[in-house]
Design brief:
The complex is a heterodimer of chains A (about 325) and B (about 500).
Chain A (H helix, E strand, L loop, with lengths): L1 H19 L6 H26 L7 H17 L4 H26 L3 H20 L11 H8 L1 E2 L2 E2 H19 L1 H11 L1 H6 L4 H27 L10 H11 L11 H20 L6 H35 L1
Antiparallel strand pairs in A: 1-2
Helix pairs in contact in A: 1-12, 2-7, 2-10, 2-11, 2-12, 3-4, 3-5, 3-10, 4-5, 4-10, 6-10, 7-8, 8-10, 11-12, 11-13, 12-13
Chain B lengths: L12 E10 L2 E11 L3 E6 L6 H8 L7 E6 L2 E3 L4 H6 L2 E4 L11 H6 L5 E2 L3 E2 L1 H15 L14 H14 L4 E5 L7 H16 L3 E5 L3 H7 L2 E6 L2 E7 L5 H9 L17 E10 L3 E9 L3 E6 L5 H9 L6 E6 L2 E2 L5 H7 L1 E4 L3 H5 L6 H6 L3 H4 E2 L2 E2 L1 H14 L16 H13 L5 E5 L7 H16 L3 E5 L3 H7 L2 E6 L2 E7 L5 H8 L6
Parallel strand pairs in B: 3-10, 3-11, 6-9, 9-10, 15-22, 15-23, 18-21, 21-22
Antiparallel strand pairs in B: 1-2, 1-4, 4-5, 7-8, 11-12, 13-14, 13-16, 16-17, 19-20, 23-24
The chains are: A mainly alpha (about 325), B alpha/beta (about 500).
Chain lengths: ~325, ~500
């Protein structure tokens, strides 16, 4: 199974790194690993839902940036941290709704729509942020501490992401509307004929993705404390890579959020593993690329094998 | 209009004076129809006669412009197909619409799963219900198996199970047998009869007239959107039915000209592809129509693909006019004069979004390209010439092929290949999903080609077609050629015996 394979690769990678650098898996080291992954795991979970319906949301990077800034401005002005987080989530929901409406009503391919909103949201963000910057000094101490703190090696933020992940996975497996997302992606025409409320489901998927991205924006602020007009730029590519590596195929209808989360974990850990092994970080992008192509190649080979095995099985029974 | 019995049960579903137009096209004109429980009712008509619109109106996909849809005598208006389904009307479409990534159980119960506490799906109950449905239909499919890779016949069974799970009282089957072979059709008919005996009203659409006579008790014929007649099948002949459908006397469906076969044009010797077909040898002479029969999965299409070079073979030889073909190179096959009209015209024979003109022109790029640039004028005249010769019905040659009916699409594929002036023509299921009138035209065309000296290899699962058109019948069974039967000896029994492996090789 795909998820087990990724987990295996991840464990092997960690094992090799630990062998090469025994300081790698210190308490701080593990904490950093998990913290770095948290943001990507959250956004990848949301993105997975959209991809399962055979769509995509390329605007997540811009949404991340603008929601982080919104939360930051609120906190800088003396607002309550919880309100700041809620603000970020609401803003994310708003943009998710926008994407969802455009895709479900406009009949324009999701790739094109969310590419457009990627630029629009980034544009709004740039104008709003201007040349300003939020730094950790602007934020309440408790907020920043929570962001980098945790229970022994497990950061608070990672626990939040884990809770969201498990809840989402449970919903997708055990609730009809969750299964309908898979149906939508597997065969949109059949879904329509089966009476599935297609528009409503697509809208829900995008809104959820936006909400999670907003939450990720708030957590980003808590973790890094630093936000400017470029925050989140290019992030959408990493998110898409994580999701694909995690086995959520772009043709829709299959894959799990656990897979997407593991893909996110794998990709971010490459970032930690390389410095620990003394390899320059410039290799990160290249390795991400290799993993992505490997993932797609494996998907294709498996699909071909399964198809020919099933065909042989059918021929024998005919 | 004759009623089966005025004192019998009331119709469960009926149309009264229904008309439906799409823009300028009047698809249905004042059509009335009654479906009674415990009866299988046939719907006949050529492509474009309005059958598909009628089905979709009954199923709640379309709303009639005028007239009424009556359920148990009371007028209804279904907001959408889901509502029609909840009311007990189920449609089994020709192309099963399943979710390939989801399990059979999920496919059947999508949107209506049994629940347990807090709105969660009860997976165990869903699986049990699916197993029960399978048992009721007499089929043993694994509920947890993904729908991907199921044969068309099995997919249909899943669709029927889906209909049953809705407690369907009306079952509308749109050309369910088009992609099935003998045994699968028999299994399907058994299931339909069981459902009929349990009180369902079945509307059965098929182009195969013998099936209509075998399964149904009454028939409604449509032509150009109008209902021509609704009558019992007892006392009707196939010719009567065809006459109603086409509006004129149709010459034989299988016009066969007597031709003296010439030299061997295609020679296949001991062709083998590991795990697919083994040791296949046959010849096709000029002027012959050789039929290739067999059950689905016997390997016929695979042999055709290997001969043409689409797939590689592992052993054996293919020769055209005595010259061997290169393994796995369609371009050499084409250069030698081979042409292949594939089984799946939509996915393999046509570029659906491209114009008729360019589709036909695809095989002529060698002659219509000068110095790397397309000579559009040459392409147009070549395409027009062949479209007219084959009597393709279209509005403009620049229209895309997905606007054409199935029969006309098939003609475009034929035009594309005939324009290359082939010596050997391989056709795979040439008249599948095509109306009676066009079928006859295609058969006439094949006969004429043979008379002109082309060697024709015809793969078909339509037994009457094979028996009507072929000079010799080759039969394949599980990857091997089990029989070669000359025309005088070819009967349903002999061909089926060889196809199911019962006859000695």
């Amino acid at each position: 199974m795909r998820e087990l394979a990724i987990l295996l690769v991840f464990l092997v990678m960690i094992g090799v790194t630990q062998a090469g650098n025994s300081a790698f898996l210190s308490q701080q080291g593990i904490k950093d690993l998990l913290l770095n992954a948290t943001i990507l795991v959250l956004v990848a979970t949301g993105q997975a839902l959209v991809v399962i319906t055979r769509n995509v949301d390329l605007s997540v990077g811009s949404t991340l940036g603008i929601t982080a800034f919104a939360a930051g401005i609120h906190l800088q002005g003396g607002g309550h941290p919880v309100a700041g987080v809620a603000l970020a989530v609401l803003l994310g929901i708003g943009f998710g709704l926008l994407n969802g409406l455009l895709v479900s009503l406009g009949q324009v391919p999701a790739l094109v729509v969310t590419l457009g909103t990627l630029y629009i949201i980034r544009g709004i963000d740039s104008i709003w942020v201007g040349s300003r910057q939020i730094t950790a000094a602007d934020l309440p101490g408790g907020f920043v501490d929570f962001g980098s703190g945790g229970i022994s090696a497990v950061p608070h933020l990672a626990l939040i992401a884990l809770a969201v992940l498990v809840a989402t996975a449970y919903y997708l497996k055990h609730y009809g509307s969750g299964r309908e997302l898979y149906a939508l992606g597997s065969n949109p025409e059949a879904a329509r004929l089966a009476g599935i409320p297609v528009r409503r489901r697509i809208l829900a998927a995008y809104t959820f993705c936006g909400a999670l991205t907003g939450l990720a924006g708030a957590l980003y602020l808590a973790r890094f404390g630093n936000v400017d007009s470029g925050t989140g730029s290019g992030y959408e590519l990493t998110v898409v890579s994580a999701v694909v590596v995690g086995g959520v195929v772009f043709t829709g209808g299959s894959g799990s959020v656990y897979g997407a989360a593991l893909g996110a974990l794998l990709l971010t850990s490459v970032n930690s593993v390389l410095p620990a092994l003394g390899v320059s970080s410039v290799w990160v992008l290249a390795i991400n690329g290799v993993l992505l192509i490997l993932a797609i190649a494996v998907d294709r080979i498996v699909a071909l094998r399964v198809a020919s095995a099933l065909k042989k099985r059918n021929a024998r029974h005919a | 209009m004759t009623h089966p019995s005025d004192t019998g049960p009331a119709p469960v579903l009926a149309l009264k004076g229904v008309s439906k137009s799409f823009g300028a096209v009047r698809a249905l004109r004042d059509v009335s129809l009654e479906l009674f429980p415990g009866e299988v009712h046939a719907l006949a008509g050529e492509n474009g006669a309005g059958k598909s619109t009628l089905i979709k109106t009954l199923a709640g996909v379309h709303r009639p412009d005028t007239g009424q849809v009556l359920l148990d005598g009371a007028p209804v208006a279904f907001p959408g197909p889901g509502d029609a389904r909840d009311a007990g009307i189920a449609v089994i479409y020709q192309e099963p619409t399943l979710f390939p990534d989801l399990s059979i159980a999920e496919n059947i119960f999508m949107g209506r799963r049994p629940r347990r506490g807090l709105g969660r799906i009860d997976h165990r109950a869903t699986r049990a219900a699916t197993t029960a449905l399978m048992r009721r239909l007499g089929v043993g499919l694994d509920p947890d198996r993904p729908a991907r890779g199921l044969s068309i016949a099995d997919q249909q069974i899943v669709e029927i199970a889906k209909a049953l799970s809705f407690d369907a009282r009306v079952l509308i089957m749109d050309e369910p047998t088009a992609a099935l072979t003998g045994t699968e059709v028999a299994r399907l008919f058994g299931v339909v009869r069981t459902l009929r005996d349990q009180g369902a009203a079945v509307l059965f659409i098929s182009h195969r007239l013998e099936e209509i006579f075998e399964l149904c008790t009454r028939v409604t014929t449509l032509r150009d959107g109008t209902r021509i007649a609704s009558e019992p099948l007892a006392g009707l002949t196939e010719d009567d039915l065809v006459r109603r459908m086409v509006g004129r006397d149709l010459d034989e469906l299988y016009p066969k000209q007597e031709v003296r076969p010439g030299e061997v044009a295609l020679s296949v010797r001991r062709l083998t592809r590991e795990g697919v077909f083994t040791d296949v040898s046959f010849e096709v002479r000029r002027g012959e129509i050789v039929g290739l029969a067999g059950l689905v999965g016997a390997g016929r299409t695979e042999v055709a693909r290997a001969v043409f070079g689409v797939d590689r073979w592992d052993a054996g030889e293919v020769e055209v006019d005595g010259r061997p073909l290169t393994n796995g190179a369609p371009s050499t096959a084409m250069a030698a004069g081979l042409a292949l009209v594939p089984e799946d015209r939509r996915a393999q024979g046509l570029v659906m979004n491209m114009s008729i003109e360019r589709n036909i022109g695809l095989t002529g790029l060698g002659s219509t390209v000068r110095g790397g640039l397309m000579d559009r004028g040459a392409e147009r005249s070549r395409s027009l010439d062949w479209a007219v010769r084959l009597q393709v019905k279209y509005a403009r040659i620049a229209d895309t092929v997905n606007t054409l009916s199935g029969g006309n699409q098939q003609k475009v594929v034929l035009a594309k290949w005939l324009a290359t002036g082939p010596k050997v023509l391989i056709v795979d299921e040439p008249t599948r999903g095509i109306d009676v009138g066009t079928k006859a035209e295609v058969h006439r065309l094949l006969s004429r080609l043979a008379a002109d000296g082309v060697a024709v290899l015809m793969i078909s699962s339509d037994l009457p077609e094979i028996l009507g058109m072929a000079d010799r019948v080759l039969v394949m069974h599980e990857g091997r050629l089990t029989a070669e039967i000359p025309r005088p000896d070819a009967t349903e029994e002999t061909v089926m015996a060889a196809a199911t492996g019962r006859a000695a090789a």
